[in-house]
Design a protein that fits this description.
The chain is mainly α. It has one domain. The chain has twelve helices and five strands. The strands form two sheets. Strands 1-3-2 form a three-stranded mixed beta sheet. A two-stranded antiparallel sheet has the order 4-5. Helix 6 crosses helix 7 and helix 6 crosses helix 8. Keywords: Membrane, Transmembrane, Transmembrane helix.
Length: 309
């Protein structure tokens, strides 16, 4: 890249920060005279996330058709996370095991959906971006959620003294590798996810989980809807879990993805993007590019075919 281009990008980013700072100062001035919640420009109260539980009856036919059955879902418009308890009257062992395994994972599923809620102010109001960037954001959003599951499983082991009863292979494998890496470095519990080797393992397994699921057909509709700009969440309201300052530092068009990879753990706040190995990050961006190219096909120009790395 030529220096002129770098200066141009730097200038755009600095101008963006100055404008953002000016808006924040204006908000501070406004607060002195009239206290209102900062809420994406809307004068309504930020909703607190609510957890709801529901039951789904699983039949032999549902699993036989390889249907995607949600274990949980975040509803941004209502500020609700809905978790599903699966039950069955089937006598078939694989159906019974499917329900048992899902219900055992409820802690991880809850954390998965909570992470979507924490990043919703980055992932829902994205219609100003090009189709390509919107697709990349949708994919990153589905990758950071399994990363949160891995962190939750490690935290569970620290709190209880025994491993999480994980049936999800990617969680089990990630936990084993993380503990081995921690022992090799003589790290103490609770494990610090800012450690470069630990952060790299988290990113490695979370992206593997996503692309494995994408290969089965899961998430394709989600990504394509984001690319096409379907305004399913146009009434979205920022919730109280969101970091209101994160959007200022979220510039995916300049490969600034760090706010999406910010997590909470027992050890403290961690940023996987800052601390993971550059090779694993580049591998992730290359795979996202590849998927976007495949989805674009003959519509590459419409997608604004600019690499997201």
């Amino acid at each position: 890249m030529k220096f002129k281009t770098l200066y141009h990008i730097g200038g755009v980013f600095i101008i963006g920060l100055v404008i953002g700072a000016g808006i924040n100062l204006a908000n501070l001035s406004h607060k002195k005279t009239e206290k209102k919640p900062v809420n994406a420009g809307k004068n309504i109260v930020c909703p607190t996330i609510k957890i709801q539980y529901d039951t789904i009856e699983i039949t032999d036919d549902m699993l036989g058709r390889n249907r995607v059955i949600p274990a949980g879902v975040f509803k941004p418009k209502n500020g609700i996370i809905k978790l599903f308890y699966l039950k069955t009257t089937s006598t078939k062992k694989h159906v019974q095991n499917y329900c048992k395994q899902n219900n055992t994972q409820s802690i991880l599923i809850r954390r998965h959906e909570l992470e979507h809620a924490r990043k919703a102010n980055l992932t829902k109001n994205i219609f100003m971006f090009s189709p390509r960037i919107r697709g990349a954001i949708a994919m990153q959003n589905e990758i950071i959620a399994p990363a949160a599951e891995i962190i939750a499983a490690i935290d569970y082991q620290y709190k209880t003294g025994h491993p999480f009863p994980a049936y999800r292979g990617f969680v089990k494998d990630a936990v084993v590798d993380i503990i081995n890496a921690a022992n090799a470095q003589n790290m103490k519990w609770p494990i610090d996810f800012n450690n470069p080797k630990i952060a790299t393992i988290v990113m490695q397994y979370s992206q593997k989980r996503f692309f494995d699921e994408l290969g089965r057909g899961v998430y394709k509709t989600t990504v394509k809807n984001a690319i096409c700009g379907h305004k399913t969440n146009e009434a979205y309201i920022t919730n109280n879990l969101c970091d209101k300052n994160a959007p200022m530092f979220f510039r995916p068009e300049f490969c600034m993805w760090a706010p999406m990879w910010d997590f909470e753990s027992i050890h403290g706040r961690t940023n996987i993007w800052f601390n993971a190995d550059n090779k694993i990050k580049q591998d992730l961006l290359n795979k996202i590019d590849s998927v976007l190219n495949e989805f674009a096909g003959q519509n590459a120009l419409f997608y604004k075919n600019v690499k997201i790395r």
